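re: ur question from earlier - yeah i can do the single chain one, its not a big deal. heres the input i used so u can compare w yours
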Amino acid sequence: MSDKQTLTPEVQKLLNKVKARERRLRHIKGFFLFLLALCAITLAGAMFDRFVPATRDTRWMVAWSAYLLSVGCLFLLWLRPARKTISNVEAAWLVERGVGKLDEKLVSTVELSEHEDEFDFLSLPMIRELAKSTSAE
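and the output i got, formated as C-alpha cells:
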C-alpha cells in the first residue's frame, strides 16, 4: 500500500460496489418517480381539457405549463438525485446496516483512513492494521 492509501484493495472494492449499487437504485427510483409525476401532469391536463371550457390560447398555455413542469420534474426527481454521489463513510454505513457482525469496525476504518491528518495520536501502521483486520472479516 502507498503512504496515501490505508484502505485495503478489498475494502475499497467493496465500497465502490456499494456506491455503484446505490447510484443504480437512485436512477431506478428517480425514473419511477418521474413517470408517476408525468402521469399526474397528464391526468391533470386531461381533466382540465375535459371539464374547463377553454380557448385555443388557454390550451396552449396549459400545454406549455405542463411541458415546463415535466422538464422540472425530470430534473428534480430523476437527474439531480442520480448525479449525487455518496462518500466512503456513507457506503460503509450501508454495509454495516446489512452486516451486523462488523460492530462498526468498517465505519471506523474508513473514517480513520479519510481523516488521517486529524488523528495524530494514532500511527499510520495502526490504521493500516485495522484496515487489514477489517478486510479479513
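The chain has a mean pLDDT of 82. not sure if urs matches, ping me
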